[in-house]
Specification:
It comes from Paragonimus skrjabini miyazakii. Its main location: membrane. The chain is mostly helical. It has helices at 3-35, 38-48, 54-95, 98-124, 127-142, 152-164, 196-205, and strands at residues 184-187, 190-193. The protein contains seven helices and two strands; from the N terminus they run H-H-H-H-H-H-E-E-H. Helix 3 (54-95) crosses helix 6.
């Protein structure tokens, strides 16, 4: 075995050990985000515990996890793919198998091509990837009822708007299209009807 061959194997082993750790982190993180709500509950709870009840927090987290499910599953699958590739690379390098290393390089090449395609799509048409997420947020806003409502969509919007100090999706006009939005409010015993934008001045700004 030549020194060059030995050095190449060591580099491949080190490279794959590093990315194996990355793959494990992605798989664990994606798995927790997809199938375990407790980390998300704790993360949001630290910021929102004084503004929302435990029941509201639970509803909001469940809704958020439903939103993030495809994204989390994608992270999990990406982690598994990286783990499998790294294991193949390690086996090929440790066993000094030319066949396994060739398979490893081919699979790695295909993965790099796929990543390049994704980057090109995002660079040229970012809305293609962002619009689905915005569509989910828009639909949640359309189903909004009020700041006191206990339905999932209302609770999710309330938690997001309070934590981000914002109103609606791009702005509060989205609630003009919300069929169940409660426009009547009572102030000092007087019931009046106000626009969504005016209502959220009280709600978001306190």
């Amino acid at each position: 075995m030549t020194c060059c061959s030995c050095t190449s194997r060591v580099i491949i082993i080190l490279f794959n050990v590093i990315f194996l750790i990355v793959g494990l982190a992605l798989a664990v993180g994606g798995g927790l985000l997809r199938w375990n709500s407790q980390p998300v509950m704790s993360l949001i709870g630290e910021k929102m515990s004084s503004q929302t009840s435990p029941d509201q927090m639970k509803v909001a987290v469940q809704g958020l996890l439903e939103w993030l499910a495809p994204f989390a599953l994608g992270i999990f699958i990406s982690g598994i793919i990286i783990i499998v590739l790294c294991i193949i690379g390690l086996i090929g390098a440790i066993c000094n198998s030319r066949l396994i290393l060739v398979i490893y390089l081919i699979l790695h090449g295909l993965l790099v091509i796929a990543e390049i395609i994704v980057v090109i799509i995002y660079a040229t048409r970012p809305t293609l990837m962002l619009e689905p997420a915005k569509g989910l947020l828009w639909q949640t806003a359309i189903n909004y009822v009020s700041e006191n409502s206990t339905d999932k969509d209302s609770v999710m919007m309330n938690v997001m708007m309070l934590s981000l100090n914002c109103c609606g999706v791009d702005n509060g006009t989205v609630f003009d299209s919300a069929p169940n939005f409660q426009r009547e409010r009572t102030y000092s015993g007087v019931t009046i009807s106000e626009s969504p934008e005016r209502i959220f001045i009280y709600f978001v700004d306190g």
